[in-house]
Amino acid sequence: MQATVVRASRVIGASAARIFEFIADPARQPRWDGNANLADAAPGQRVHAVGDIFVMTLTMGTVRENHVVEFEEGRRIAWRPAEAGLQPAGHLWRWELEPLGPARTRVTHTYDWSSLTDPNRLARARATTVDSLEASLSRLATLVEDS
Domains plus CATH for the chain? Predict the structure, then answer.
């Protein structure tokens, strides 16, 4: 039986505030997406609260409305993707940041598809592995760490 919650964690050499700005701003997300799934997001959609919705265009050209369901500034953000105009299908992306010092943060990235209801999305959900989450963490670290 395959796990329906996939999680990866890494310590990144940057402040939680700096890292969070890259996660909470959808326009920056395609630069570090380890799934190679995100193509574009319009600027000006920075997430500020539970209930916010931000819109992304995927590499295959479809549009996703992401419903923010968890939010704590600088610490935690999670959203549930949905096709435009529809309710979320039941999967969730979560980012949790734990400051370890002024320029060190443990970042945990989770993909939870335990409540996924759309059978057409199951193959893609199963394809999201720890490796793809670690790729996002690695790309994010490259962008935010001081050189």
Answer: 5-144 (3.30.530.20)
Q: At a CB cut-off of 8 Å and minimum separation 6, what does 97 contact?
A: 16, 19, 20, 74, 75, 76, 105, 106, 107, 108
| pLDDT tens digits for range 79-132 | 999 999 999 989 999 999 999 999 999 999 999 999 988 888 888 888 888 999
Nearest CA to 104 out of 10, 20, 12 is that of: 12
Enter the pTM of the model: 0.92
55 close to 64: Cβ distance less than 8 angstroms: yes
State how far the Cα of 127 lies from the Cα of 139, in Å rounded to an integer: 19
* Cα 129 off chain centre by: 14
Answer for the pair 11, 104: CB distance below 8 angstroms, yes or no: yes
Residue 60 CB burial class (10 angstroms; 0-12, 13-18, ≥19): exposed
